[in-house]
Write a structure and sequence with these properties.
The protein is of the alpha/beta class. It has 13 helices and twelve strands. The strands form three sheets. A seven-stranded mixed sheet has the order 1-9-8-5-4-2-3, with helices on both faces. Strand 6 and strand 7 form a beta hairpin. The chain starts with 8 loop residues before the first helix and ends with a helix. Bound molecules: pyridoxal-5'-phosphate.
Amino acid sequence: MAVPLLDLTLQNAPLAAQFQELFAKTVATSSFILGPKTESFEANLAKTTGTQFTVGVSSGTDALLLAMMALGIGPGDEVITAPFTFFATAGCISRLGAVPKFVDIDPVTFNLNPALLAAALTSKTKAIMPVHLFGLCADMDPILAFAKKHNLFVIEDAAQAIGAKDKNRPAGSMGHIGALSFYPTKNLGALGDAGACSTNDPELARTMKKLRVHGGERVYFHDVVGANFRIDALQAGFLDLKLPHLAAWEQARIANAAFYTQSFAGLPLVTPTAPAGMHHIFNQYTLRIPDGKREAFRAHLTAKGIGHGVYYPLPLHLQKCFSYLGYKQGDFPESEKAANEVVSIPIYPELTDAQKQEVVQAIKSFF
Ligand SMILES: *Cc1c(COP(=O)(O)O)cnc(C)c1O
């Protein structure tokens, strides 16, 4: 029996009638952009992010861009982040003319190692962008303390982490702004592209709402240069229909992860662990396969029909487009090691017991 890495149809099929009703109503009213559907979703989402405000936008990438624009980050400013993440994290910094300043990750959590912040600080440092990778929050207390001490902004890349918590504080609520993604493979996925920013600062919320519509509160009068970061009313509506199910989906992911971790005990691989006080929501369940065995392991899973993925095979400091930053192989050994060892396996909420057994058997048979 083949097990796919992810099967979105299982999650969306039971909601199809509600989606179709929403679609028909939207066509009937022709209210396609922002509007009451977006306001309703933003209010409900704010309960999940535990923030006073959320601002619905066109994608997670645009949420990161909008957050940095609202904080005035621009040419020459340095933004500290980790090189072991999805491209958008650093891509957005670069697109604004700012400079991604990488620091290595903690090998246990795969997240930015706060002990390395001090060495990356310069007079140009404007912000820190911790990523809550795979659904586990970065260690926020030392990051927040460092930022406060040096008067830096904190933008959380919470694209993979809706619902995750660090000492009961939800992802997206701890920094100045959080950026969420509703790309279909995220824990809360739209039926297309969408994202959101979260904040507790009313001024920042207002600025982001303005920048989302080309920088003007009144149409055709522009105080600042913004962009089109608007969310579709349909996507906001679909997300609002899915949001009440998020907690149950999250519980299923956590249960699947617990089953795997228990089943893999004793095997020569490393299972994901969450430090005390961290609530991991397992957007990915990511193993480390040490000793140069990762590619053989992947070939074995492929032969057994077990879907898997490598997030991410090349750290950002070694990407061609960032060669201008002057980093080289060996600069961030933990990120480079992780890129050579990680494999993510099926963790989606609708996995059956038989499928999970199949995954476990396939992995045990490799060793
Ligand atoms: C998905 C993701 C993004 C970008 O979100 P999109 O909605 O795909 O634009 C940014 N950062 C991280 C860590 C992500 O996983």
